[in-house]
Design a protein that fits this description.
It comes from marine sediment metagenome. This protein has 236 residues and is mainly alpha-helical. It has 11 helices and 7 strands.
Length: 236
């Protein structure tokens, strides 16, 4: 994708035309001069060649976003589920901070999550580096609080993200138990994911569908759909 180039081009216009929120940047941001220097590689002629978006449209979009406040950014999986996904999210965050469209009503960077209740799962700690409520596993006080609540000892180290598991599959990672995930299809490099999953000594998949990943499993376990169990959904 060429999303990063497009967003950098928009930010260059915003900086050159003085449409930034200087007060917000001074109070809330770091390394602005370094960021500003990085924009030099993204003149609109270059960005147009990369993206095929006309220069006047790039400039128009930049001005619309920067001058019609409050402005908000909403994105779905189209900019995240490929190899440049992380860079795209960082670029949208930079665009919002550059114009001060953060932390106020009707502003911000708002992801429209791709699966049902993925927001709720993350809120409840289904992430490798946080407990429920996005409380860091590396914080000793937070760790002690959850150890007391759950009556067990907990590791002070973050777990592995899916992409890290894929890289370690078949080497340091010998066995995987997957529930409701389909990395053989959803990973940025699906072919690579399928190849490394096949190297595992033991793969268990629990799902309501015989997914692409389930077809690679040694054991497939049934699961209950949302309509067959109690619980909550958190809207994006």
């Amino acid at each position: 994708g060429t999303d990063v180039a497009l967003l950098m081009g928009m930010m260059r216009v915003i900086v050159e035309e003085g449409l930034i929120d200087s007060e917000f940047i001074t109070e809330r941001c770091e390394n602005f001069n370094v960021f500003k220097e990085s924009l030099k590689s993204f003149d609109l002629t270059t960005v147009e060649k990369i993206t095929s978006v006309p220069q006047d449209k790039i400039a128009e979009a930049a001005r619309l976003y920067a001058t019609h406040k409050p402005s908000t950014i909403l994105y779905a999986m189209g900019i995240t589920q490929h190899s440049h996904g992380t860079d795209n999210v960082m670029a949208t965050a930079n665009l919002a901070m550059l114009t001060g469209n953060i932390g106020k009503p009707a502003t911000g960077v708002n992801p429209l999550r791709g699966q049902n209740n993925v927001q709720g799962a993350c809120d409840l700690g289904a992430l490798p580096n946080v407990y429920p409520g996005y409380q860091a596993v590396t914080d000793p006080k937070i760790k002690a609080k959850f150890e007391a609540a759950w009556g067990t000892s907990l590791s002070p180290n973050p777990g592995l993200a899916i992409t890290e598991m894929i890289e370690l599959a078949g080497t340091k990672l010998k066995a995987v138990y997957l529930m409701g995930e389909n990395p053989a299809l959803s990973e940025p490099d699906a072919g690579h994911a399928q190849e490394v999953l096949a190297r595992l000594e033991f793969l268990v998949v629990q799902d309501i569908f015989l997914s692409e990943t389930a077809k690679l499993a040694d054991v497939v376990l049934p699961a209950a759909s949302f309509a067959e169990k109690d619980g909550t959904f958190t809207n994006t």
